[in-house]
Amino acid sequence: MGRRSIHFVASPGRRDDPAVEALVERYGQAPLAEADVIVALGGDGFMLHTLHRMIETDLPVYGMKTGNVGFLMNRFEKDGLSERLCAAQEVSLYPLKMRAETTTGEIHEALAINEVSLLRQSNQAAHLRVLVNGAVKVEQLVSDGILLSTTAGSTAYNFSVRGPILPLGTEALALTPISPFRPRRWRGAVLPASAQVSFEVLNPEKRPVSATADAFEVRDIARVDIHEERDTSLRLLFDPDHSLEERILNEQFL
């Protein structure tokens, strides 16, 4: 494959960075409508922002780490970018689609690349009912919240609340309670990616709960329905020696 037309995007704190300016000067800045690939410069948070913002373009995104966290990023180098893009391996990720209903009946929808999480809004623990494929699996979960994670997001917030790491290609989702109190023995579940998951908020007036799909938040939730959105594919590019699959595998041995 010949030289690829690149559209560079950079996190706000890096846009005036001389290293970023040097990349644009060397490789050019293709208009988004004419680009073959998007190169995102920053950390994981900016990569998630870029994927959400560019989701309609269907362009592959190649990240280079200039931020503090770079699980989704490749190493930063100014030389050989064209060759690296041609040799990069593509990984397709499918986001979660959240449909959230508030206590006033408003409906909000959003996509999540990492996870959909429910969190208590006050000092009162959340009381939640958990359903999978329409069947009640936990009648009353008393906790700070709960989350449903993709494989790519399983090493992020999910892992920090003791959820399992899911290798890419497992076609699974991680359902993980956040600081659970009751049931005392329930610590979550690994579900097939085809599962339809719902959360109902019990007594939402006294125990208000918010729902978050990555950075998109809805407050005062009554019910949330979640499924994997197979009609939407996110295309990430990784250097052959820095594959996302290998990184997720290695995280289990740190």
Describe what this molecule looks like in 3D.
The chain has helices at 18-27, 44-53, 81-87, 157-160, 244-251; strands spanning 6-10, 37-42, 61-65, 89-93, 96-102, 107-112, 115-120, 126-132, 135-143, 145-149, 172-178, 189-192, 197-201, 209-213, 216-218, 221-228, 234-238. The chain has 254 residues and is of the alpha+beta class. A hairpin with a 2-residue loop joins strand 14 (209-213) and strand 15 (216-218). The chain contains 5 helices and 17 strands. The chain folds into 2 domains: 6-93 and 233-251, Rossmann fold, CATH 3.40.50; 96-228, Tumour Suppressor Smad4.
How does the overall form come out from the CA principal axes? Answer: elongated
Strand order of the largest sheet: 6-5-16-13-8-9
Mean pLDDT reading: 91
Let me know the CATH homologous superfamily of the largest domain.
Probable inorganic polyphosphate/atp-NAD kinase, domain 2
Q: Quick one: CATH class of the largest domain? A: Mainly Beta
State which percent range the strand residues make up: 35-45%
Largest sheet: 6 strands, antiparallel
From the alpha carbons, calculate the radius of gyration and give it in angstroms.
Answer: 20 Å
| Uncertain regions spanning at least 5 consecutive residues | none
The protein's oligomeric status is: single chain
How many strand segments?
17
H/I helix tally:
5
Helical residue percent band: 10-25%
For the termini, the CA-CA separation is 37 Å
